[in-house]
Write a structure and sequence with these properties.
The structure holds two protein chains of two kinds.
Chain A (H helix, E strand, L loop, with lengths): L10 H12 L2 E2 H11 L8 H15 L7 E3 L4 E4 L1 H23 L8
Antiparallel strand pairs in A: 1-3, 2-3
Helix pairs in contact in A: 1-2, 1-4
Chain B lengths: L1 H6 L5 H18 L5 H41 L1 H30 L10 E8 L2 E4 L3 H10 L3 E15 L5 E8 L3 H5 L5 E2 L12 E4 L1 H7 L10 E4 L2 E8 L11 E6 L4 H5 L7 E6 L5 H18 L8 E6 L6 H35 L1 H9 L4 H34 L17 H28 L2 H5 L8 H36 L10 E5 L10 H16 L4 E7 L10 E3 L14 E6 L4 H5 L3 E4 L13 E5 H7 L9 E4 L2 E9 L14 E4 L16 E6 L3 H15 L6 E5 H8 L1 H35 L1 H9 L4 H33 L12 H27 L3 H6 L2
Helix pairs in contact in B: 3-12, 4-10, 4-12, 4-13, 5-9, 10-13, 10-15, 10-21, 12-13, 15-21, 15-23, 15-24, 16-19, 21-23, 21-24, 23-24
The chains are: A mainly alpha, B alpha+beta.
Chain lengths: 110, 859
């Protein structure tokens, strides 16, 4: 399975991966990071967070290295595979935005 | 917070175990600072909003994973998957088919408004529990009854329908004008009868089918003229397509009025009473009231109404006990098959679990919890059950036409049950139970093994307990198949016995058909005689025809026509001990049917209305009235006239192969007066010929068409078909039962074989040691075979007990075969034993060929 097979990522998953790119965090720290980065627009619930984490781990079991290290201290970190999945999603999104721009669409409403 | 922790139980256990604490602490951290009533309420709502959707999604995730995993696992073991699917298909298919018939005939309410209020009203006389009402008794009961909101009546009839095309014989119901309103179904088009529609008016209501076939579904059919028996009628209404009252053959409803003659005669019973209970009135109350009225009528008319009461039955209960039993027996067999299929499935899953122990141990070692593994195994068995069940439902749909023969003709329902939502829901439920119960069982055992043991190399397969469970399952299989086999055997014997019953006539090479002559066109004996004479002489002249005759009703086609016999010195009681069946037959009837003439002579062409009225009687008639006397020349009163005995013939079965018939009296058709005894004028033609029906029939049709172009020919069948119809519903049931029994036996054999093979392979080392120590191969064979025989015995003994019980329960179907019939039991037990032996043979031989060196080196 390649990173591209995981696309498109659910928004919650993408945000969780983003939260882990700069440092390892525990569960509540992930929620806080996502919340502050999105100016409070995305407030992950505890259930959504851990269900997403579990899914990532299960998906990753099909890969040699897990996408997130589940350490006893319950700090989560991103694996190389996780990083490449996040990159792939980024590429996909950029591509989409570029396509929209090419059609003359801009985010501002006229 | 406690509430949140409690809600966490909605999550799959694996997720809860892994993240439960974190979930709780994260949730707490997010909602820190909430206080007061609103804070608590807010947390309550937030907890539900957090857990419920995520829990559902998490379960769904797991389901998808398990399904993917299952698909892969089954692809790796296609043989196992196919066997399991077939086994389930068989069990579910048999059950669904049996249920569709049982539901249709026994359970489902009749397709009328408030069917529980509809009852049938009969007269009860000694010997007859369901005697039709006489018109005056019907009138008096109806006038006096207060517990009924409506009380109509009908009698069956038939008429020749002439439209533009070929004349056609149709079944009719002559009904009181209020009957259709009592039933309460609205017409599809037009209107129902009112009190103004008397017999003098020409109104008829027709069936949807007749409207489609004869009036081409014409939307302007109301008001159309239709010719019945030479009389014009006007269509006032068309009934809906699924309306089948009083039975599915009726296609025309005509009004019935009491004519003066009938209004006085309390011994002429031909009306079937149909009533609706008033709201809030119970069946018992109506029964009690009608009983009181009948008792009063008996006092008023002590002679005609002697010992005459009433019987009131719910319309839904108008089903013979025999039919009910046939269907219940079928359901029992189907249930047995499902049980067998489940046992087999459980056995297969258990056997498979053994092979998968290592795989499962690896999964467990990788962190899958016990609950997670069980869940995976359950998904697997449910998937198997669902695929098998779907195939089974297809099998059931295919089987329903065969089972349709079990639907009795006298019920106001369609010919064939349909596999509808109710049936599908039943099938779904069976599938769920099958998959769950028999998946949980092996899953529990597997999930419970000390998983790490299996990882250690060379571990001898553990699980003596599992072996015991599998033995038990094989015994259940043997038990069920033995019970099915014996029951099927008993029913086969019963059927043979019925088929061996001598009906009293010879059925081979007799073709029959009906030309029912319409009244008033043929009300006069002269006109009828012209028709009979012409048809009979021309058919007789056909090269291959040996003899030909007309009769009122062919044997086994009509149960009625039973009249009281009055003889000086004999008391007339209205029961079977003083009645006889009445048939008018043309000369040569006995020769055509090969009924032996024991003394005297046949009916002759010269027995005309101007001559003394003659009668040919059957042997049992003579035994009853003139034992040890010469009956020829004796006189008795029967069918409105005094008659003189001119001949004695052998007895025949008139009313059914399994029913004892009244003695028979045959009368001369020329002595049937004008407009007298309508319905008894000969109409059934029997032809004994060496030619095949297909070559003979066009010739006969031509002759009849030339004699009267408007006369339809109906009910074409051979006498053999008429007799075969007597056992048709039995044959249908038996066919299904035999197939089930055969499959059951096969499955049991396969189960036994599988278990013993497994025993042999798991004991290879032990056997190797034994051989190495000098055990002869014969002894090894005996050792394994002994195990097989013990298993078979363990199943056979309860199986025989079950069969004895089933045999007693269906004794009414056995036609005198004893429920413990030794021949059937020995044959069935022998078959089971042979199967068991056959199943044990291969594993036993394999055991004897175990090479000690290889067996021991493998360790």
């Amino acid at each position: 399975m390649t990173p591209d097979d995981m696309l498109p990522l659910p928004p919650a998953t993408f945000h969780i991966l983003l939260a882990l790119t700069d440092e390892d965090r525990h569960g509540y720290a992930i929620i806080q990071d996502v919340e502050s980065r999105t100016d409070g627009e995305l407030r992950l619930s505890a259930g959504t967070l851990y269900r997403s984490i579990q899914r990532m781990i299960v998906e990753a079991r099909k890969r040699p290295a897990p996408a997130l290290d589940d350490e006893r201290r319950r700090y989560y970190s991103i694996t190389p595979f996780g990083t490449s999945v996040a990159r792939a999603e980024m590429r996909r999104l950029t591509q989409l935005v570029r396509l929209a721009r090419a059609r003359g669409l801009t985010p501002e409403t006229t | 917070m406690r509430f949140y922790r409690w809600l966490l139980h909605l999550y799959p256990a694996s997720l809860r175990a892994e993240y439960g604490d974190e979930l709780a602490s994260t949730f707490a951290a997010r909602h820190v600072g909430a206080s007061g009533v609103f804070g608590a309420l807010g947390m309550f709502v937030a907890a539900i909003a957090d857990v419920v959707p995520n829990a559902v999604a998490a379960h769904f995730d797991i389901l998808v994973q398990d399904l993917v995993y299952t698909a892969r696992a089954l692809r790796r073991a296609p043989g196992f998957a196919l066997t399991a699917v077939l086994v389930v298909a068989l069990g579910i298919g048999a059950n669904t088919a049996a249920f569709s018939v049982a539901d249709f005939v026994l359970l489902r309410p009749l397709p009328f408004p408030h069917p529980e209020q509809l009852v049938k009203v009969w007269e009860r006389t000694p010997g007859y529990g369901r005697m039709e009402l006489s018109p005056p008794n019907y009138r008096d009961l109806k006038t006096a009854a207060t517990t009924l909101s409506g009380f109509g009546a009908y009698s069956d009839g038939a008429a020749n329908l002439v439209t533009d095309g070929e004349p056609r014989r149709v079944s009719t119901a002559e009904i009181t004008h209020d009957l259709l309103s009592v039933i309460g179904v609205k017409p599809f088009m037009g209107r129902l009868f009112t009190a103004n529609d008397t017999i003098a008016s020409d109104a008829i209501v027709i069936s949807h089918d007749l409207w489609q076939t004869q009036l081409n579904g014409d939307a302007s059919a109301i008001g159309k003229r239709v010719d019945l028996d030479g009389r014009p009628y006007t269509v006032i209404g068309v009934m809906p397509a699924d309306y089948h009252f009083p039975n599915r053959d009726v296609s025309v409803w005509r009004t019935y009025d009491m004519i003066a003659d009938d209004a006085a005669d309390r011994s002429n019973n031909y009306l079937t009473g149909v009533a609706r209970l008033r709201d809030g009135v119970t069946l018992e109350q109506a029964q009690a009231e009608l009983g009181l009225i009948a008792a009063r009528l008996e006092r008023e008319y002590p002679k005609e109404n002697e010992k005459t009461g009433t019987n009131v039955y719910r319309m839904s209960d108008e089903l013979s006990d025999r039919t009910r039993l046939l269907i219940v027996a079928l359901c029992g067999a189907a249930l047995c098959t499902l049980l067998l299929a489940c046992a087999n499935l459980a056995n297969l899953l258990l056997a498979r679990a053994v092979g998968r122990e290592r795989e499962i141990a690896i999964r467990a070692a990788l962190g899958a919890g016990r609950e997670r593994i069980m869940r995976q195994l359950l998904t697997e068995s449910l998937v198997l059950a669902t695929i098998g069940g779907a195939v089974g439902v297809l099998v059931a749909i295919a089987a329903v036409p065969t089972l349709g023969r079990l639907v009795p003709i006298n019920l106001p329902i369609a010919r064939q049950p349909s596999v509808d939502l109710r049936v599908l829901a039943f099938a779904g439920l069976s599938i769920l139970i099958t998959g769950l119960v028999f998946g949980v069982f092996p899953a529990l055992r597997t999930g419970g093994t000390k998983s790490l043991d299996a990882l250690r190399d060379g571990t001898r397969t553990s699980g003596g307990a599992r072996q015991r469970v599998r033995s038990l399952l094989v015994m259940v299989e043997v038990m069920v198949s033995a019970a099915l086999l014996i029951s099927a055997g008993l029913l086969v014997r019963a059927m043979w016995r019925i088929q061996a019953i001598d009906p009293g006539f010879k059925t081979e090479n007799v073709l029959t058909l009906r030309t029912a002559l319409p009244y008033p066109k043929y009300a006069f004996v002269k006109r009828r005689t012209e028709f009979y004479t012409r048809v009979l002489s021309e058919v007789r002249a056909l090269p291959t025809v040996q003899s030909v005759a007309y009769t009122s009703f062919l044997p086994l086609t009509m149960g009625g026509g039973i009249w009281p016999v009055k003889i000086a010195g004999h008391e007339v009681i209205r029961d079977a001990s003083s009645t006889a069946s009445m048939r008018f037959v043309s000369p040569q009837f006995f020769a055509t049917m090969r009924i032996p003439i024991l003394s005297g002579r046949d009916i002759a062409e010269t027995d005309e209305a101007t001559q003394p009225f003659v009668a040919v009687v059957s042997e049992s008639f003579v035994k009853r009235y003139w034992p040890n006397e010469d009956p020829i020349g004796k006189r008795f009163n029967f069918g409105l006239h005094d008659r003189t005995v001119i001949g004695v013939v052998g007895d025949i079965h008139v009313r059914g192969l399994e029913t004892q018939s009244e003695p028979q009296v045959y009368l001369a058709p020329k002595q049937l007066g004008d407009s007298e005894l309508v319905g008894y004028a000969p109409k059934d033609l029997a032809i004994r010929s060496t030619a095949r029906a297909a070559t003979l029939l066009p010739e006969i049709r031509r002759i009849i068409h030339e004699a009267d172009p408007q006369q339809p020919v109906s009910n074409v069948r051979t006498m053999e078909e008429i007799v075969a119809k007597e056992t048709a519903s039995r044959a249908a049931q038996l066919r299904v039962l035999t197939i089930l029994a055969a499959i059951a036996l096969m499955l049991a054999g396969v189960g036994l074989h599988g278990l013993l093979s497994f025993t042999v392979s798991s004991r290879t080392r032990e056997i190797g040691v034994r051989v190495a120590l000098g055990a002869e191969s014969g002894r090894i064979v005996r050792m394994i075979a002994r195990e097989g025989i013990l298993l078979a015995l363990g199943g056979l003994i309860p199986g025989v007990a079950l069969a004895l019980w089933a045999g007693r329960a269906m004794q009414a179907l056995l036609a005198g075969v004893k429920p413990d019939d030794p021949v059937t039991f020995s044959v069935a037990i022998g078959l089971c034993a042979a199967t068991a032996l056959f199943g044990s043979l291969r594993p036993a031989l394999r055991a004897s060929r175990v090479d000690p060196a290889t067996a021991l080196r493998a360790e």
